[in-house]
Predict the structure.
Amino acid sequence: MGTTQLETVPEPKYWHLRTVLSEALDQDFEVGEVLPNERELAARFGVARATLRQALEQLELEGRLQRRRGVGTTVAPPRVGVAVGSTGPSWPGEAGDGWQAVDCAEGVPTAAVAKLLGIAADQPVHTVRRTRVTHGQVVAAELLHVPAASVPGLSGIDAPSGPARARAVLRELQRQTLEGQDRAVELGSARADDAKELDRLPGAPVLLVTTRYITATGTAAVAVATYRADTCRLTFGDSGDVEISHPGDTERVAS
């Protein structure tokens, strides 16, 4: 990578640097290769480290770079297509949905979750944690919120936690007749728990997919899936409509 004169460029310095770096990634680096450290890059391009960080963050957001604990900033592989739509409504946990049950806990929901579920804040909810693995890599983590009223047949003698409890909740949920589902997608930042699950740094860009599962009596469950924005390219099936919203239009579900 060579140096460049940024002062005479009318566009923001970080954006021009992002373009220069992007071209260098295509020409001079291989997938998985570690970039020089920030001090060296800033000196090479004659920019402040704050400008460099802005450019690197933009490239990470675009999926060109990955920040890895104990390794540094590396060139990212092409995004993996992950299907989040289907040819028809289906319950989580049905065959072929691509998710693995990790854990389950019971408690009261957050205000945002209670609002989406249409229940009182003091009503118990089972929260199932699942992960999605593509090509051997965890690309998404999900919290599936299921009101106790949606799984009345769940036995108290079932495993109190862990994957077995999660699978029991999913089995009971599937006993109901699913009439429809709606889905919204937005850009967000990785929270600490999700970042650890996805091997990302807290605050890294992620794609949040919120799905409501609807029966004749109302919302039976709500899932909030956090996808790695650097590696995932979400695809939708025939019925996988996407709701495009602007900040402030809808209340984000806390994950």
About this structure: The chain is about 25% helix and 30% strand. Residues 13-28 form the longest helix (16 residues). Confidence is low (pLDDT under 50) at residues 239-255. The chain has two domains: 13-75, 80-235.
